[in-house]
Design brief:
The chain is α+β, with helices and mostly antiparallel strands. Helix 9 (430-451) crosses helix 10. The radius of gyration is 26 Å and the shape is globular. It has a domain at 3-289: Beta-galactosidase, Chain A, domain 5 (Distorted Sandwich), CATH 2.70.98. Helices cover 30% and strands 27% of the residues. The strands form seven sheets. Strands 1, 2, 9, 10, 11, 12, 14, 15, 16 and 19 form a ten-stranded antiparallel beta sheet that branches. Strands 8-7-13-18-17 form a five-stranded antiparallel beta sheet, with no helix packed on it. InterPro entries: 6-hairpin_glycosidase_sf, 6hp_glycosidase-like_sf, Gal_mutarotase_sf_dom, GH65_N, Glyco_hydro_65_M, Glyco_hydro_65_N. Residues 36-241 form the Glycoside hydrolase family 65 N-terminal domain. Keywords: Hydrolase, Signal. Residues 1-18 form the signal peptide.
Length: 677
C-alpha cells in the first residue's frame, strides 16, 4: 500500500466557546509556546501560534536518510498548512490581531484558533487530522465582517529546498459540469528514496464549489518551484461572513504506486463530500476511541494531564495500520521517528487495556518484521530472532552506528516477546496466538537460549549489554535485561502449553537459572559490577513492575529506596512513573501520587501541557512519558493486572486529592471500574 497524506484545512463555522475543562485546554498566552499536534496515526500536523501558520507535517512510516552517510529519518513533508490572508490589502499577522485564543478539543480531535483583526473581522479556524480519511486533515475557516471588507486568501504548497526536481502545476480537472481545480507539487525526497506528491484546493461553503461560474476566480502563481500558490479574492459585507476550506493531500511512494494521481483523488473526495458528513464521520470515530477513557473526579488538572496523554496515544496510533508509535509520535522528527522499546514497554500496555485494535497494530508491526529480526540474529551469531534497538520501515537496525545501544541493547527482543504474550492474555485470540503470537515467542525464546553464557555453577549470564539504564554500557548480567529474558522464556513456555505444542526444554532450564546479582543486604544490583552510580532511568525496579519477578514486599521496598535517589534529575519522565506504580500496588498512595506527579509535571510545557522527554527538554510530545503516566493510573491506582486469566483488579487505591477514578471500556468486554474514596 503506497503512502497518501490528505490534509483538509477548514475554518470553524462557529466561534469556539470552549473553556478549560476535562476535554478542552485553552490558552491566550504565547509565552514559551509549545504547540499540540493534531494527528490520526498516519499524519501529524503541528499548528503554530502565528495566525494561519503550520510549523511542520510529519508522515508516519515514510523514511529518508538523515544525511548522505546517516541512518533513516522520518520524513517532514511538504507544508500545505501555511496560508496568507489579507483584509483590505493588509496581511493578517501576530502584530495585527487581538483577542487571540487557541483550544485543543481532545474529544473531537480538533485544534481551533480565534482572534479579531483590527476590529474589522472576527476569525476562527480549526485543524483536524481526519480520522475517517487516514491521510487527511481538515481546517475549517470562518471570517465574519464587522464592516465591509475585501478578503484575499493565498493557499500554498511549500517544499523545502532539500526536495529534488519539484514540478509545480495548477490544472482544472473536469467531469461533465463538475470542475475540480487542483494545485499540485511533485518532487523527490532529498536522497531520492521517495516521490512525494501534494495536491490542494479551496472549497467554499454555501457556494457550489464545483461550478466554475459560482465560485471566486482562482489565481495561480508559481513563486518558485518550491512555493506553489493559489489565491482568490472576495468582498464580504458588514455582518456577513465567508466560510471556506483549504484542503490538501500528500502521498508518497512508501504507500502508493502513483502518489501524484492518488493525491488528486483524495482532494477531489474532500472537495465533493459535504463538510457536515465528512466531519461527522471524524467525530464519530473519535467518539468510539473515547469509549475507553480515564475519568478523574476532584482533580481537574490531573484529569486534563491524563486525558492529554491518552489523546496523544490515540492520535499517534490506529488500528488498521500495522504501524507502531515512535517516542515522539507524529509531533517531531526527534529520534528520527524510529521505533524503540518505548512502544512495547511503555505505550503498549495502556493501549492494550483501552484499545485492542491499536494494540494489535503495534504487535503486527513486529510480526511483519520478524524475518529481518531472524536475519539479524544470524548475522550476530545467534539463533531465533534479534530485534533492532531502533526500527524503521525496513525492520533492520536503524540506530546510528556510533551509538552503542544499537549493537548492545538487547532487551528490546524480550520486550517484544512480553508484548505478544500479553496481547493473548487480554484477547484470548487463539488463532492469532497460533499464527502470530507463538511463532514470535518461539523465535524470541530461541534467541535468548543462544544468547546466554553458561557458568561453571550451571547458572546462566547475559554478558556485554546495554541495559535500560543506558549510562552503564557493556555490562554483564544487567538486571532488567536478565529479568526480561526470564519473563519471555516463561511466556514462550506458557504459549506452547496453551497450543499443546511441546516446548523446548532449554527454555525452562535457562529461565530458571539466569543470574540476578544482590548486595549483601538483599538489594538487587543493577549489574554484576554495579557500585552505586547514578542511573539514567529505572532498571532494577522494573523487575517488580511490570515483570513481577521480584514480588516480595521487603525486597521491593529496598530496591525502591535504594534506586529512587539515584535516578538522574534530567532522566526521562517514565522512570518515576514505574516507581509510582509500584508504590500504588504496595498500598502507599502518598508516595505513589508524589512520584506520579514528579514523573511528568516538571516536563510539561506551556501553554497546553505538552510533555517533553526531560525536565530541560522542549520537544513535544513525549509519547513514552504518556504511556508511563497512564500505566500508573491503570496498574497502580486502578489496581488492574494483566494475568493468564485476563485482566483482573486487586487492591486499587486513590490519592487523597481524588474523589473517584473511573477506568472506562477496559479489555475486550469494555468493562468499567470505579474506585471511590
Amino acid at each position: 500500500m503506497k503512502f497518501y497524506l490528505s490534509i483538509f484545512l477548514v475554518f470553524n463555522s462557529v466561534f469556539l466557546t470552549a473553556q478549560n475543562d476535562g476535554w478542552n485546554i485553552s490558552t491566550t498566552n504565547k509565552t514559551n509556546y509549545t504547540g499540540i499536534v493534531v494527528a490520526n496515526g498516519r499524519i501529524g500536523v503541528l499548528p503554530s501560534e502565528e495566525p494561519f501558520k503550520t510549523k511542520q507535517i510529519i508522515l508516519n512510516n515514510v523514511y529518508e536518510k538523515a544525511s548522505q552517510l546517516g541512518v533513516s529519518r522520518i520524513l517532514e513533508g511538504m507544508n500545505f498548512g501555511n496560508l496568507d490572508v489579507f483584509i483590505n490589502d493588509e496581511l493578517v499577522t501576530e502584530n495585527t490581531i487581538t483577542n487571540w485564543k487557541q483550544t485543543i478539543n481532545m474529544k473531537k480531535g480538533s485544534f481551533t484558533t480565534t482572534f479579531i483583526f483590527k476590529n474589522k473581522a472576527r476569525i476562527s479556524y480549526t485543524f483536524y487530522a481526519l480520522r475517517n480519511v487516514p491521510f487527511s486533515s481538515y481546517i475549517d475557516i470562518k471570517i465574519e465582517a464587522n464592516q465591509d471588507i475585501k478578503i484575499k486568501v493565498i493557499g500554498k504548497i511549500e517544499s523545502m529546498e532539500s526536495f529534488q526536481n519539484p514540478i509545480s502545476t495548477f490544472r482544472v480537472l473536469k467531469d461533465n459540469e463538475t470542475t475540480m481545480p487542483i494545485l499540485q507539487t511533485v518532487a523527490k525526497s532529498e536522497f531520492g528514496r521517495h516521490t512525494v506528491a501534494t495536491s490542494a484546493t479551496f472549497i467554499w461553503h454555501h457556494i457550489n464549489s464545483t461550478r466554475e461560474n459560482q465560485r471566486p476566480e482562482l489565481i495561480h502563481e508559481k513563486v518558485s518551484d518550491h512555493n506553489n500558490q493559489l489565491s482568490f479574492e472576495k468582498i464580504v459585507k458588514k455582518n456577513a461572513s465567508l466560510e471556506f476550506t483549504w484542503t490538501a493531500a500528500q502521498c508518497t511512494t512508501q504507500d502508493f504506486a502513483d502518489p501524484q494521481n492518488e493525491s488528486e483523488r483524495f482532494v477531489i473526495f474532500n472537495l465533493l463530500t459535504p463538510k457536515t458528513d465528512l466531519l461527522k464521520h471524524h467525530f464519530d470515530l473519535w467518539e468510539q476511541l473515547w469509549e475507553s477513557d480515564i475519568i478523574i473526579e476532584g482533580d481537574l488538572q490531573t484529569q486534563q494531564d491524563v486525558r492529554l496523554a491518552l489523546y496523544h496515544l490515540y492520535a499517534f496510533g490506529r488500528g488498521d495500520s500495522n504501524l507502531s508509535i515512535a517516542p515522539m509520535g507524529l509531533s517531531s522528527q526527534n529520534y528520527n521517528g524510529h521505533i524503540f522499546w518505548d512502544t512495547e514497554l511503555w505505550m503498549y500496555p495502556p493501549l492494550l487495556l483501552l484499545n485492542q485494535d491499536i494494540a494489535k497494530s503495534l504487535v503486527n508491526y513486529r510480526s511483519d518484521r520478524l524475518e529481518k529480526a531472524k536475519e539479524k540474529a544470524i548475522n550476530f551469531g545467534y539463533k531465533g530472532a534479534m530485534f533492532p534497538w531502533e526500527s524503521d520501515d525496513t525492520g533492520e537496525e536503524a540506530t546510528p552506528a556510533w551509538a552503542l545501544t544499537g549493537t548492545f541493547e538487547h532487551h528490546i527482543t524480550a520486550d517484544v516477546g512480553i508484548a505478544f504474550w500479553n496481547y493473548y492474555r487480554v484477547t484470548k485470540d487463539k488463532l492469532w496466538l497460533l499464527q502470530h503470537g507463538y511463532p514470535m515467542l518461539k523465535e524470541v525464546a530461541d534467541y535468548w537460549v543462544s544468547r546466554v553464557s553458561k557458568n561453571a555453577d550451571n547458572t546462566y549470564s547475559i554478558k556485554n549489554v546495554v541495559g535500560a539504564n543506558e549510562d552503564a554500557p557493556n555490562v554483564d548480567d544487567n538486571a532488567f535485561t536478565n529479568g526480561s529474558a526470564i519473563t519471555t522464556l516463561q511466556f514462550a513456555i506458557f504459549a506452547a502449553y496453551e497450543l499443546k505444542i511441546p516446548a523446548n526444554p532449554l527454555w525452562k532450564t535457562v529461565a530458571d537459572n539466569i543470574k540476578l546479582y544482590k548486595f549483601p543486604d538483599g538489594t538487587t544490583m543493577e549489574h554484576s559490577n554495579y557500585s552505586g552510580e547514578d542511573i539514567k532511568q529505572a532498571d532494577v525496579n522494573l523487575l517488580a513492575f511490570p515483570l513481577n519477578i521480584i514480588n516480595d514486599k521487603e525486597t521491593i521496598i529496598k530496591d525502591l529506596k535504594y534506586y529512587e535517589p539515584r535516578i538522574r534529575r534530567d532522566g526521562p519522565t517514565m522512570g518515576k512513573s514505574a516507581l509510582a506504580t509500584i508504590y500504588a500496588q504496595l498500598g502507599d498512595a502518598e508516595n505513589a501520587f508524589r512520584l506520579f506527579k514528579e514523573s511528568y509535571k516538571p516536563n510539561k510545557r506551556p501553554p497546553f501541557g505538552a510533555l517533553s522527554e526531560t525536565a530541560t527538554g522542549h520537544e513535544p510530545y513525549f509519547a513514552t512519558g504518556a504511556g508511563g503516566m497512564l500505566q500508573t493510573i491503570l496498574f497502580g491506582f486502578g489496581g488492574l493486572h494483566i494475568t493468564d486469566q485476563g485482566i483482573i483488579q486487586k487492591n486499587p487505591i486513590l490519592p487523597k486529592q481524588w474523589k473517584t477514578l473511573t477506568l472506562k471500556g477496559i479489555g475486550t468486554d469494555k468493562k468499567n471500574y470505579t474506585i471511590k474514596q
